[in-house]
Write a structure and sequence with these properties.
By secondary structure, this protein is of the alpha/beta class. The chain has 14 helices and 13 strands. It is globular.
């Protein structure tokens, strides 16, 4: 253990996710009493923990933790959900997680959860437990990343369910649309205003439902498609995505600037689709009577390639940023913006299949979408569908 202490060039950064104030103070006191230099950042619930890990305001300058201590019964975001979110983030997936529980019986229950935890500990722990926790930071991070990349059973089931639903519901929906049209014709010129309105409402609802089914199918394809990972010119893929949106770009009078993005290992068709949804989102959510301006830039730092898509639109409130990636999420009045709210969900699915992450980050004006992928030199190979 003395060797570990000598190797430490800086304090160990610890993220403590603990809703109980008393237990949190006891844990912090154990770390304060330890001879190993450390800093503890406290999160009172799952949402706050994810904001800290994503460096969202007011945590934009927070250092990344070396180890995470998590109370499984944390508020707002349940513990397994928090661990699952961490596993999907290419920044955070290598961070070891220690699950805390009140008793050995609770730990036995916690081990049954299908989550990736490195260790379990009964709380409140004492200063003797601290070296064991800190020792986890020296373990093999590559093994952690490989385990985190494995798809969960829930993801596979969701993909299969989406594919079945999108196909099996399409036929009866077409029948509703066709027969509502026949009904409107059969009423003839004697139809009342209400009858005409009812038929129009049915047709409008079925058209929207069909659009949603189409997006479910697109989401399923993004999940199930085979991937060929090879070095790609990201600038070219972004330009191809922009060309596919020519009509939308022209209608919005959008001025899109694409800076050199470099070469990154990715699946070309899937990532082009992802870029298309990212640009489409920036075009759709615009201020009225103001030309759309979008700037796309990229940088590589610490083995992570990051692209920013910044716009001059209305922006996204902090409490809505994560919700924007939910399938069919829309909190604006119907018809305020085109689409059914699936583009960003599909984009996130594609990025996660590349072991990456996507999120909104702080911007001086408008919104800024950040896509991050591992910057790895990778030979051509084919991944089967997750």
């Amino acid at each position: 253990m003395a060797d570990i202490m000598r190797e430490q060039q800086r304090p160990i950064e610890i993220l403590l996710i603990e809703p109980n104030a008393t237990d949190a103070e006891v844990s912090r006191e154990a770390f304060r009493a330890s001879p190993m230099p450390n800093r503890v950042c406290l999160a009172g619930d799952g949402e706050e923990a994810l904001r800290i890990l994503r460096r969202q305001p007011p945590y934009t300058h927070q250092l990344a933790p070396d180890v995470i201590l998590l109370e499984l019964n944390v508020r707002r975001r349940h513990g397994p959900e928090v661990i699952e979110e961490i596993g999907r983030d290419c920044f955070a997936r290598k961070i070891p997680i220690v699950v805390m529980a009140a008793s050995e019986a609770d730990i036995a229950i916690a081990r049954r959860y299908p989550v990736r935890a490195r260790s379990y500990i009964v709380k409140p722990f004492n200063v003797e437990s601290v070296p064991k926790i800190i020792a986890l930071t020296t373990d093999d991070a590559d093994a952690i990343e490989q385990a985190a990349a494995e798809p969960t059973a829930a993801e596979r089931e969701l993909s299969e369910f989406s594919y079945i639903v999108s196909h099996d519901l399409a036929a009866p929906l077409r029948h509703v649309t066709a027969f509502s049209t026949l009904l409107a014709r059969s009423l003839g010129p004697d139809a009342s205003i209400d009858q005409i309105a009812y038929c129009e409402h049915i047709q409008h609802a079925t058209h929207k439902c069909q659009a949603m089914l189409d997006e479910i199918l697109a989401f399923s394809r993004a999940q199930q498609a085979y991937m060929t990972i090879e070095p790609c010119d990201a600038t070219l893929l972004m330009e191809m995505a922009m060309l596919q949106l020519s009509a939308e770009v022209h209608a919005a009078g959008a001025d899109i600037t694409i800076e050199p993005l470099g070469k990154v290992s990715m699946d070309s068709p899937l990532m082009t689709l992802g870029f298309k949804h990212a640009l489409s989102n920036a075009i759709k959510f615009r201020l009225p009577d103001e030309p759309v301006k979008i700037n796309v830039s990229a940088a590589t730092h610490d083995g992570v390639w990051t692209v920013h898509i910044a716009d001059n639109g209305p922006g996204v409130a902090l409490d809505r940023q994560e919700k924007m990636f939910q399938l069919f999420y829309q909190d604006e009045p119907e018809g305020a913006f085109p689409g059914v709210g699936a583009g960003l969900a599909i984009l996130r699915r594609i990025v996660r299949r590349h072991d990456g992450a996507v999120r909104f980050v702080e911007a001086e004006r408008g919104a800024c979408l950040e896509l991050s992928l591992p910057d790895r030199a990778m030979p051509c190979l084919t991944h089967e569908a997750a």
